[in-house]
Amino acid sequence: MCQASGSSPLENNVQLISAVVIIFEHSFFVFDKRRYLQDKQKSDPSFDVALEQYIASPHAAVVREGVSAAVQAYEEVVTTAARAYEEALTTAANAYEEAVRTLPTWIAKLPFEYLRKKPKEAFERSKEKKKQAFERSKKMEKEAFERSQKKEKESSCSQAKAELTKTILEITLNHRLPRP
Question: Which residues does 77 contact at the CB level (< 8 Å), separation at least 6?
Answer without folding.
Answer: 156, 157, 159, 160
